[in-house]
Amino acid sequence: MDNDKPLQPETEDEIEIEPVQQSSDKMLYCEAEPPPTVEKVKPARENSETDLEIEDDEKFFTTGQKELYLEACKLVGVVPVSYFIRNMEESYVNLNHHGLGPRGTKAIAIALVSNTAVTKLELEDNCIMEEGVLSLVEMLQENYYLQEMNISNNHLGLEGARIISDFFERNSSSVWSLELSGNDFKEESAALLGQALSTNYRIKKLDLSHNQFSDVGGEHLGQMLAINVGLTSLDLSWNNFHTRGAVALCNGLRGNVTLAKLDLSMNGLGNEVALALGEVLRLNSCLVYLDISGNDIGNEGASKISKGLESNESLRVLKLFLNPINMDGAILLILAIKRNPKSRMEELDISNVLVSEQFMKTLDGVYAVHPQLDVVFKAVQGLSAKKTIFLLTNPMKLIQRLNSLDFVLPPLEWRECLCGAKGLLEAWRAHRNHPGMHLCQA
User: What is the Cα–Cα distance from 279 to 259, expressed in whole angstroms?
Assistant: First the structure.
């Protein structure tokens, strides 16, 4: 307690502003906020604090967390980030786009070693490089409170992947969610990450999107999926997987028992991979969310996927947006869901497909069997915008989707069409039986 006494007379402003004034001419800035902001904003924040908040701040001073960070900044030669100083006791800290660099990241890591408040940390686009990620990994060996971390778009490359893979193999951190999007990971990185994740059971959510994995990387990650028992969510969108790599991923998914959410959108899967995806849907019993948008899957691929939907009992969301599927493929998909009495499908996204009124009649029959289902499509061919609004989606979900339609009705049209949520279902049924009738008439 004696060591804490010199800290009591100091104010927060004195502690924060003094290092900035000393270092402003010599040190590399690692923050987006100019120093004057601290002087203007801080007093306003203090004036609005309750007695309880002030009491908590006094406790915070006794821990020396701010002083530790300021000393770390002096040690590595960077200007302190005022936002970080103000939010060190918050559970969520967003330092995206602050230009920290490796040294600024090291100072943050030093301050977080003994921090027990921060549970989610955002460090996207800070050019932290492999030196910065090494500092973070060393910090995570001591900090068991941080649970979610975003270090996307930081040019980590192969050496960064090596450091993270070593971290995965230790299984010694409390981090369960890690975002690594856009870090220039290629085939060698996929091999390292795949091997490390094969034995890792702590990481539950992993984002590897916007990297440069191709078919060889898909094979490494597919082997990992076959034996991984930790991942529940994996984002592999915007990579370069084609037939061989995507089939390898599907082979790994067949026996996977934990992955619930998979994003493979914006790759190059094609119709050939759709056959393997159909097999995954037939055999896998834990996948709940599958996004394969933008993968050059046509009616042939939709036919193969529909075979899996006929027996799948776990999938709830299937996104096929931006694929060259027309109404014939869409009908195959919804009929497959109809034929499966145990289907749990809640959303089928084919929102670029222009359908007909005949399709809507078929969809009515599907809704009768699976009232929880919502099929999202572009519009109804040959119908006016006013009529399309009633047929676009499941009536129970119509109100939720009114603001997301791809056409806009003038305010007067809205008043004419909407008679209120209370009688919406009855009005919709009347309109379906008498298409020429306005909703307000129903």
Answer: 16
